[in-house]
Amino acid sequence: MTTRSPVRLKDIAKDLNLSVVTVSRALQNRRDISTETKERVMQRVRELNYEPNLAARTLATGRTYSIGLVVPSFLHGFFAEVAKGIVDALRPKGYGLLIATSNADAELEKRETEHLLARQVDALILASVQHSPEFFEEIQARGSACVLVDRKLPGLRANHVGTDDVEIGQIATQHLAGQGCRRIAHIRGPEISTAAGRLEGYQSTLRKFGLPLGPELIATAAAEDSSAEERGRRAMTQLLSLRPRPDGVFVFNDAFAVGAMGAILAAGLRIPADIAVVGCGNARWTHLLRVPLTTVDQGAIKIGELAAKMAMKLVVEVASPSIRDTFVPVKLVVRESSLRTPAVASIH
Fold first, then answer.
1. Are residues 193 and 289 in the same domain?
2. Do residues 73 and 120 share a domain?
3. Count of domains observed in the chain
4. Closest CA to 172 of 282, 62, 264, 311
5. pLDDT band, very low/low/confident/very high, at 79 (cuts 50, 70, 90)
6. What is the CA radius of gyration of the chain?
7. Angle between helices 106-118 and 134-141 (to 10 degrees)
8. Residues 151, 248, 164, CA angle at the centre, nearest 5°?
9. Which H, E and C letters describe the chain, residue by residue?
10. Which domain holds residue 37?
11. Is 236 inside a domain boundary?
12. pLDDT(280) > 90
């Protein structure tokens, strides 16, 4: 039995009476190739089941057409959505994605990042848990393209795609105030820029409305010794011991909010009548909870898409690229966990 030779780029070019360069540029979706030519090439690619020779392409271009992604975890959905946005943007351009998780451990993040660089990824996309910029300054000094997503690192000049976390804190807290809450607490996250921004937005809104603002109204769910839900439950239990008790709470993320809501219900209190709750992230399951959760949608898929496009652009830029800071718009998604005033419209 004879073995069929693999289809080569020049076979497609010969079939279509095009140059190999034209076919290659069509497969890269280059703007200087007409739509008609691209469609002809793609049709022949499908007919012949053509698979590009990645090793040959790497030798010819000096690129591996792969991007590395390092995130703290995929357990609670936000970073899974970010990854989906990245893949959706990379796939049409012929790039692949290599993924690693750091388990929110700074040293493990360094090792996973080095492993990706050893695989010669063309660029890195990271949601970092580092507390200082030295490691990434070293990566940048090597000439590696890098994009931060979600959180920033103080003192590091780096490309970033995320949200305005101060705005998130403001719109969540303003919504609770608008629902009649007059003693609003906050369950804050770990020592990262997103948590600091949301805390700032929460505090500035309380000052704006002349509402009580004190350290006793802020509980931290930062320890990594248990699940996010358990950390949220413990923080809410701390707030429930206050007298007078809070009548509203803005929670750093949806996973913490689930634990907080569990603590409220376990104490025999009603959501939102006794305590209104707002989370952040708009995880896919938040509308399925016993009390559907009001939350701030961060546009996670869009964050991933823009981060991927930024990373690919950095790969091909010859000149030293300027630092870009891109913010994705956020929106409040109102559900039953905070809805004390029926006139407020829900966004689904």
1. yes
2. yes
3. 3
4. 282
5. very high
6. 24
7. 10
8. 20
9. CCCCCCCCHHHHHHHHCCCHHHHHHHHCCCCCCCHHHHHHHHHHHHHHCCCCCHHHHHHHHCCCCEEEEEECCCCCCHHHHHHHHHHHHHHHHCCEEEEEECCCCHHHHHHHHHHHHHCCCCEEEECCCCCCCHHHHHHHHCCCEEEEECCCCCCCCCEEEECCHHHHHHHHHHHHHHCCCCCEEEEECCCCHHHHHHHHHHHHHHHHHCCCCCHHHEEECCCCCCCHHHHHHHHHHHHHCCCCCCCEEEECCHHHHHHHHHHHHHCCCCCCCCCEEEEECCCCCHHHCCCCCEEEECCHHHHHHHHHHHHHHHHHCCCCCCCCEEECCCEEECCCCCCCCCCCCCCC
10. 9-52
11. yes
12. yes
Give the CATH number of the domain where residue 22 resides: 1.10.260.40
Q: Which two tokens stand for residue 289?
A: 């909870």
The residue count of the chain comes to 348
Q: Is there a single domain that holds both residue 136 and residue 182?
A: no
| Residues 150, 169 within the same domain | no
pLDDT (tens digit per residue) in 36-54? 888 888 888 888 777 665 5
Alpha-carbon distance of 332 to 190, in angstroms, equals: 22
pTM of the model: 0.80
**Selected residue with higher pLDDT from 54 and 230:** 230
* Cβ-proximal residues to 93 (8 Å cutoff; 6+ apart), any chain: 28, 29, 312
Alpha carbon distance 233, 266 (integer Å): 10
Task: Examine residue 344 and state whether it is found in any structural domain, yes or no.
Answer: no
